[in-house]
Amino acid sequence: MNSKTVYTYRSGQRINLIKSPDKFVARILPQDLGSIGIQNSEQLSSSSSRVICRPEELENLMQQCRAKAPCHHDYESEESGDKYLITDRIFVRFKDPNISFDRVSEFTGRYGLIFLEKYSDRDYLFQLTNATGMNPVKLIVTLTENESLVELSENSLNHQIQQYAFTPPADPICIRLRMRDGCRTGFATPSETFAGGDPENIPDGVANPVRQNQS
C-alpha cells in the first residue's frame, strides 16, 4: 500500500505526516454520508466521520463529498503513528498583541478565511474556504514559514471518540475540559492550551468554559 509523506507544524515544531491512500475525513455524520451514496464510514467525533474506500476511488469520493461538506485527507504522524485528523479550521497566534481589526481583516481576506473565534488579543480561530486555495496542512506550512504577522499556527484536529478506563486528574485545566466534553484524555492537547480549546467536539449552543474562564 503506497502512501505519501508531507509535513506541517504543531506547537511550532515541524512534524512529518503520512497521507492515507484509502481513507479521508469529512465534517458530516455517517447517516448523512449514506444519503449521498457513501456507505463505508465511521463516526469520529460529534460532527465528523472517516470514510474508507479503495485507493482508486479516493479522489472521486472526496469530490463527491465536498458537494455536501468539507473533507480532507486522513493523516498520521510518521514518527508516532498517531492519527492526525485535520479539519477545515486553524488556530493562529499573531505576533502583535495589539494587532488591529483592520490587520486581522486583511489577513483573513488574503488567505480566504472566515473569522470564527477570538480567544485573546492575538489568539484566533479561522475557517478555510474554497478561496483559500490550499488545504489546511499546506496553509499551516505557509503561515509558519512565510507569514510575518504570525507567531504560531496549527490545525484544529478531530479527536476520535474513545472510552478511557482511568480516573481523570483533578487539575484545573482538566476540570474545565471535563465540563466541556468529558475530558477525553485527562490532559490538554496543544490546541487546547494554545487557543482555549478545540471547538470540534463542542455541540452547538454549548458555551466553552475554558474561554469563559479566560474572559
UniProtKB/TrEMBL annotation:
Region (Disordered): 190-215
Superkingdom, natural source: Bacteria
Name of the featured protein: Uncharacterized protein
Source organism (scientific name): Desulfonema magnum
